[in-house]
Amino acid sequence: MGFSIILPDGAQKNYDQAVTIGEVARSISTSLGKAALAGTVDGKLRPVDFEITHAAQVAIITDRDEAGLAVLRATVAFVLEAVAKQAYPQMRLGEHAADEEGFFVDTDKKNQIKISELPELEKAVQKAIKAGDRIEAVLMPKAELAELFKDDPFKLDLLDQEADEVQAYRLGDFVDFGFKALLPNTGKIKQFKLLSVAGAYWQGQSSNPMLQRITGTAFFKKADLDEDLKRRAEIKERDHRTIGRDLDLFFVDPKVGAGLPYWLPKGATIRRVVERYIIDKEVAAGYQHVNTPVLMNLDAYKTSGHWAHYRDDMFPPMDMGDGEMLELRPMNCPSHIQIYKHHIRSYRELPIRIAELGMMHRYEKSGALSGLQRVREMTLNDGHTFVTLEQVQKEFAKTLKLITDVYEDFDITDYYFRLSYRDPKNTEKYFANDEMWERSQSMLKKAMDDMGLDYVEAEGEAAFYGPKLDIQTKTALGADETMSTIQLDFMLPEQFDLSYVGQDGEDHRPVMIHRGIVGTMERFIAYLMEIYKGAFPTWLAPIQVEVIPVNLDAHSDYAKQVRDELNKQGFRAETDLRNEKLGYKIRETQTQKIPYTLVLGDKEMKTNSVNVRRYGTEEEVAKSLTEFSQEIAQDVQAYSRKH
């Protein structure tokens, strides 16, 4: 039965009988044997008790390996299941997972677990850790597990996906499956923390029952756990869903439509400022703004290729009863193509730049929806330029300059450029025309090289109709996200038979450039909420000035007069006339992150002045109303940038 095991450094060990991963580790060194948490056998993660019976490549996993962290977290999830089942015997268990963000366990019982119950569950897990009980890896017949979980429909659903023999784990009387590898005993668990409870649809489908998801994390060192908890606190502080709730900017209510945001007055104000800014910027850059319907004949999307390549992300067509099928648009490009086709075009008109804040709809699954970042209805800052072949590079550079100018005004500095190409092996995802792809990709690359810009290249990230330049930003929460894009398209002009009359009097095919400056309004404003932590610069703030009278009877009229004067000058000012203490009102303006607070008493009323406090400071400065108006005007005009 002799066989050999090859270690990562190329060393070979020979055996004449079955050997466990733990025994292999001990044969290398005593210290490695003690440190071994799991291992990989031919690349597959296995527990330390796993028996190797044939030639294989083996690596030992310790707490120094990334995979070791995943094993630790999976083990805490398993122990959490065990203690929760002991505390609530009628509880049913759903899915569980461990990854770079931590772990989760889905549970279901008559009265769902509350966040106030987590400390007791933590204590129970700690007790199990101190006991140091063995976690046994066992191979069990599927039928035996089915009998064990006969009262748990969620586990039976998961069991259907398993083979006849299932890798399971046992801790005392508790058994579960679906884990690749767990620690050999509970005593090897080090630092952990249960974090939250939240609803989670079974297997991510909104038509399925809602379970209770318990999330947590674990580390081998306390310092690492403390750092992670600090990071999570920062994320929570910046989470646009929390900011949107606390500042009363928007809400999403699944009862009236999941993934469909309602913009409250202050949120709508921010959005309106951004939209006006973008429109003015684009008009100044030569764009013609249009408005087109959110519905379009399905045939247009069949011609464009969206129906073939994007159908799963589109809502079902609506049969109008007379043979006409209408579709909620997932993209604006076919609509802008119709604007271009409405007239005969001459080479003298090109470039023709068409832009729109175009509403679109995507068929997003419920489990993927998240605040403003993943929604079913969105408004894209969209634009399409129709150019001659000779104009491509100049127009590309002009568009990129517009994007970077906008970034400067919003103080977006952390971004990089990514050239996104097709995957030539993926014939289903991408339009089949090798010559078109080679030509357009080389043009895009040449344009970037000629401008001397650094970029990364990403195969397989192109749109189905052409390559693109993506401007990737880091969100405040650390995620890599496409903010802006410029796409080169030779395909759609061909599909829709677009043309312009050239200098020779003949018809020629234009090239189409798709571009989005700041993406969708929803995602962009979510991004702004997070990078500003809700403290919007003055030019964007929904309320720029809060005017507070010291005494309601004596100073309210003057406060209203100051508010009205500021509003007349175009600033967004409000007056707090609630019957509350002055200190409470001032603290409230700081909580609501209003850029300027004006406190008005006898002195201010007599001298036609204001007492000014900037957000984030306790300093109060007396100024004439005229001086303050000039100060805030300069602040707004400079996009709140400090010079």
Automatic annotation (TrEMBL):
Cofactor comment text: Binds 1 zinc ion per subunit.
Keywords: Aminoacyl-tRNA synthetase, ATP-binding, Cytoplasm, Ligase, Metal-binding, Nucleotide-binding, Protein biosynthesis, RNA-binding, tRNA-binding, Zinc
Localization of this protein: Cytoplasm
Highest taxon above the source species: Bacteria
Residues that bind Zn(2+): C333, H384, H514
GO molecular function, one term: ligase activity
Cofactor(s) annotated in UniProt: Zn(2+)
Enzyme kind, highest EC tier: ligase
Swiss-Prot/TrEMBL catalytic activity: tRNA(Thr) + L-threonine + ATP = L-threonyl-tRNA(Thr) + AMP + diphosphate + H(+)
Domain TGS positions: 1-62
Domain Aminoacyl-transfer RNA synthetases class-II family profile: 270-537
Pfam families per record: HGTP_anticodon, TGS, tRNA-synt_2b, tRNA_SAD
Major localization listed first in the record, in broad terms: cytoplasm
The EC number(s) this enzyme carries: 6.1.1.3
Family matches, as InterPro entries: aa-tRNA-synt_IIb, aa-tRNA-synth_II, aa-tRNA-synth_II/BPL/LPL, Anticodon-bd, Anticodon-bd_dom_sf, Beta-grasp_dom_sf, TGS, TGS-like
Cross-referenced HAMAP family: Thr_tRNA_synth
Subunit structure: Homodimer.
PANTHER family referenced in this protein's UniProt entry, alphabetically: THREONINE--TRNA LIGASE 1, THREONINE-TRNA LIGASE
Similarity comment text for this entry: Belongs to the class-II aminoacyl-tRNA synthetase family.
Protein name: Threonine--tRNA ligase
Source species taxonomy: Bacteria, Bacillati, Bacillota, Bacilli, Lactobacillales
